[in-house]
Amino acid sequence: MEQRKGIWLAVAAYSFWGLIPIFWKALETVPALELLAHRIVWSVPLLFLIIVVTRHLNVLRDSFRSPGTAATALVAGVLLSINWGVFVWAVTTNHIVEASLGYFINPLVSVALGVIVLREHLSPAQRIAVGIAVIGVAGMTIVSGVLPWISLVLAFSFGTYGLLKKRTTAAPPIEGLFMEVAFVSVPALLYLGLLAEDGTGALGSSATTTLLLITAGAVTIFPLILFGASAQRIPLSTLGILQYIAPILQLLLGVVLYGEVVSKGEWFGFVLVWIALAIYTIDNVRILREANTTGSAASLS
Questions:
Q1: Mind giving me the DSSP string for 135-171?
Q2: Model-level pTM?
Q3: Does residue 301 sit within a domain?
Q4: How many domains are there within the chain?
């Protein structure tokens, strides 16, 4: 029962992330940097409220007092801001397809970073998967003549962010996220203050825009809460497969709803990345099944 609930929570989280371009498209007249600032600032009080309700203020206090934890949160906050900002810019400037490719690539980037930074071991199939993905991105660049920088920035910023969250100095998920957005909210508030002072800010320009900007924090935090609840109930292997819901929906939105054209070079990259992901996912499931079988045999002996 709990596992089924976890699957539906994960589906809801990834579907929300997949459809979130619709929300940012409604604010496409607002500059991306201003949208990012609002996304950060309005997330702070909501996260703080969650921490108060869950009675984790003492955990947050201890995390802030640890220099290593604070430093990790600061760097993670910068990476998260880059990821959020580039994604919002991509959506509002009709690059949803390229953004979706970034989240298809992300799992393979995380694997590569694990090998380079953490010295993790890759199976032969996983090495082939990463190699195919690299060929896909390189081929896309050669065929289209343009480096898919949006995809790469999104994949590497979030991949590196995930790497930081594995550090022993990282704070617990909700407290860590609060610290990350709290740190970057300082320049975000200063920027919004400057816009308000010279009268160029979007807040207050219309009732609809103001309401959407205020809800930017909730739109950011809500799927993270769903994801966190699902991660407690289902295996990471299941989450790994379900995560492709988001970029698939983003790709469909870009092509079907917003009429973005996918070039031959982009299709070349997409197909190779999908092949790489299929190889990686199948091999990952195999490894987990073997580990479970070994564990079960050991418990019986």
A1: HHHHHHHHHHSS--HHHHHHHHHHHHHHHHHTSTTPP
A2: 0.89
A3: no
A4: 1
